[in-house]
Structures are given as structure tokens and as C-alpha cells.
Amino acid sequence: MSKIEQIRQLLEAEQRRLGALVERTGKHLYRRDEPYSADFAEQVVEVENNQVVEQLDEDGKRRLAEIRSALARIEKGCFGICESCGEEIKQSRLEIIPHTRFCIDCAEFHN
Ligand SMILES: [Zn+2]
């Protein structure tokens, strides 16, 4: 199996994991429209939970978008090329952050 095929499988596994996560957080957030518990202490816990879930939901969606765009780059055959300077991204970096769009030098300016 080629390196890029390995990375593609990693990305696809992560895409499935995040897809399931975002589905769960989405359901949770949708349910929020139901009235809060009468008990004030419980309400506080619910609001805090919702903030955590919202954060998870946002992170999940953002990472999912990154992974989808990495998979699209694999399809187009331009995976592993830095979008900023056009240089090849080091293999070791891709193994750690397969969805990255930038080489290590350019990443500093895009974070
Ligand atoms: Zn670069």
C-alpha cells in the first residue's frame, strides 16, 4: 500500500469518527430547544454542558471540513503540496497532521 493510500485511509477513518461525533452533538443541540429543567442547579449544568457540546460541535465540523478538503486534494492529485509556497510538505509532517495544507515554514504564518 502506498503512503498516500495509508494517509487516505487514516483520513477516511477520522472522517467517519468525526461524522458520528457531529451527528451526536447536532442531536444534542437540537434537543436544547426543549424547555430546561425546573430546578435551577440542573439548568446551570445543562447550560454548561451545552457550551461544551457546542464547542465539540464546532471543532468537529471544522476538522471534518479540513479532512474533506484533504481527501479532495488526494483525489485531485495535489495532496502534500503546500498551498502557500507550492513546496512539497515533508512526509513526517503529513504523518502527524495528514490534513495540513501548509508546509512547516508556512504553517507558522497561517495559524
Ligand atoms: Zn510552504
Summarize the structure in words.
This protein is mainly alpha-helical and 111 residues long. It has 2 domains: 3-79; 80-111, no CATH class. Helices cover 68% and strands 0% of the residues. The protein is built from 4 helices and no strands. α1 packs antiparallel against α2. The protein is elongated and about 60 Å long. The model has no long low-confidence stretch (mean pLDDT 89). Bound molecules: zinc ion. Zinc ion binds at residues 82, 84-85, 87, 102-103, 105-106. The site of zinc ion has 8 residues, from α4.
In short:
The chain contains four helices and no strands. The chain is mostly helical and 111 residues long.
